[in-house]
Amino acid sequence: MAAWSKLQEKLTPRNSAVAAGVVVLWWIARTRWQTNGKKQLNRGKTTFNLSEAIEQERREREKTADKGRDKAAVDGVFFRSSHTFVKTPMYCVSLDFDPVTLPSIHFKMAAWSKLQEKLTPRNSAVAAGVVVLWWIARTRWQTNGKKQLNRGKTTFNLSEAIEQERREREKTADKGRDKAAVDGVFFRRLCRILKIVIPSWVSAEAGYMLLVAVALVCRTYCDVWMIQNGTSIESAIIGRDMQLFKKHLFKFIYAMPLISLMNNVLKFGLNEVKLRFRTRLTDYLYDKYLRGFTYYKMSNLDNRISNADQLLTQDVDKLCESIGELYSNLSKPVLDIFLYAFKLAGAIGIQGPGYMLAYLAVSGLILTRLRRPIGKMTVIEQKYEGEFRYVNSRLITNSEEVAFYQGNKREKVTIEGTFKKLVDHLRTLINFRFNMGLIDNIVAKYIATLVGYLVVSRPFLDLANPRHLHTSHSERLEDYYKSGRMLVRMAEAIGRVILAGREMTRLAGFTSRVTDLMKVLDDLNKGQYQRTMVSSQQNAEGEKPSVPLIPGSGRVCYQDYIIKFESVPLVTPNGDVLIKEMNFEVKSGINVLVCGPNGCGKSSLFRILGELWPLFGGTMTKPDKTKLFYIPQRPYMTLGTLRDQVIYPDTKQDMIDKGVIDKDLDYFMEKLQMARLFYHKPQFAILDECTSAVSVDVEGFMYQHCREVGISLFTVSHRKSLWKHHEYYLHMDGRGSYEYKPITPETTEFGS
């Protein structure tokens, strides 16, 4: 007990704060040491870990036992999961002293007393500054060391070379402009988005924004009333006036439901605004994205946008969330500033609020300039998030192929590399936000509060001020308390406006990404696309074409019951010339067998015929897109019923409009791809190895039925049994030449 009494005497507030700081620094160092130690151990692991295997088996049993019920509840499973994550040793202080350990305790207390004598406030501040400077220098040294190591590399790394080339292209494309900064470009982009999400002043979005504005005004007046009523309650308590105390206390009780209602109306309005903004913007983007073949062109013809799914889902959501938060975080503080400035002008004069507003302008400009890198960092963050999401979805899509190749280790390297790139960037962003947070707190909170003290003290410390020449101490105290609270609220509002600039800088990043997507969608819908042309525009014989290849320079004519190519070059979007010029004509009722080695241009021909790829010259005559049907080797399965599979891309209403009922579909159910073909009955159809899984008898029935319903076929196949169902063949040799001839008894059939 004597030792405990001495310990209590030494535990002053200052010593407790110093001890807490020492413990925090010790905990950080210990955590870093443990993390680095675990990394070193993990790098050297090659043996089987029995405890991990047992833990994995237990988790699998819990997963099986919990199947079929809501697993996201605060129950025993939750606490067991928490125990799994939090496995740090717990330390407690015991008050049961062992007599054997008392001498060592006295020795430690003596050492602690000497340490306390040295730990003056000035020494503590100097030590804290030294620690901060050491940490900054260490971080800079590590960064510079990594840069020096990277500069010293002499080995060639293909992936790094490709990544470097990609960064150089992006740097060239973005040269001369800051893609994500709070400037005139940002406000023009934001205005364009706001015109989409708020189509008119009488729309529902404008109504909800008005509701939020009214709720903000009411909440501000509620805050002012709460200050005045709270001051009156405290004045009544100090003055020991029971009647006045009851009066203002009951006023507060009566106002509680209304104040609570205002707060929840504000939250409801903000949530509805965010949701409606997202709905408007998503509908607008998907209307352009799914118009024609824009979705195909974006991922196959244009390389300005990667991971469009990330932009259309997460980025749009975060953009609308950020706009709603910015509207709330700016409008409420701005309203508070003007309201409190008006109230304070009558209490302490116009100069006080004027000084505060001047400080707001100066500090806002300085911090906005310092926060500029956050916009670009946000753009890069979302880009890396999209890449990480893409490699995971790619593994799910191709899981069977990866499993056959046993490529799990290689895929792990790819995923971990992508994730490491994201983590490194996020760590850089965290360090930048840490440094900016120090400046933000000092400028937006502490200096603003300091200015507030200087402003509110002027009429009280000025003995010649007529306002307080004949007032009592209690009156001055009440006036100071009321004015001080209003000034503190005004300083807090100024701080929120200054900190809202941080959210605005982050919003600039999302705005940049979404407006870039909108620009690409507009270009693609106009038939314009940009792609890095790595080809030298040479044909198969190594000669450059006499006429430069310009995407979209060809002409498409629409005419029923005929397909005709006139001087049409077979060119990929990348500029590779497969065939210099093609001339042939196919009329309705003629079936054509397309053959040739892999890579000769069979699929490229059909992509041009389906208008997926642009024409680089010549004239192509063909029926409308709806009268040309493509049957791939692997059918696309849509979401829905069996009926939806057969009639795709029609809907049930489209089927009814065509006069087809479910019973009619039974006739088409031999093979799903052909069922779609028989249902739609186009003028021309392209069969890409789609008959390879059926027997020769069924194959003959399909071709016979197509003749009966008037469907002309382009067939890509290597089966000799199909030659008898065609009148012409189109053979490509893969070296830039082709031949289009009728099939006669003298024609040499090739295939298997």
From TrEMBL:
Residues 233-444 form the ABC transmembrane type-1 domain. InterPro entries: ABC1_TM_dom (IPR011527), ABC1_TM_sf (IPR036640), ABC_transporter-like_ATP-bd (IPR003439), ABC_transporter_sub-D (IPR050835), P-loop_NTPase (IPR027417). Keywords: ATP-binding, Membrane, Nucleotide-binding, Transmembrane, Transmembrane helix, Transport. The chain crosses the membrane at residues 206-227, 248-266, 337-367. Residues 563-752 form the ABC transporter domain. It holds the Pfam family ABC_membrane_2. One of its GO terms (biological process) is peroxisome organization. CDD domains: ABCD_peroxisomal_ALDP. Gene3D superfamilies: ABC transporter type 1, transmembrane domain, P-loop containing nucleotide triphosphate hydrolases. PROSITE patterns: ABC_TM1F, ABC_TRANSPORTER_2. GO terms for cellular component: peroxisomal membrane. GO terms for molecular function: ABC-type transporter activity; ATP binding; ATP hydrolysis activity; long-chain fatty acid transmembrane transporter activity. Belongs to the ABC transporter superfamily. ABCD family. Peroxisomal fatty acyl CoA transporter (TC 3.A.1.203) subfamily. This is ATP-binding cassette sub-family D member 3. It comes from Lingula anatina (Brachiopod). The gene is LOC106166020.
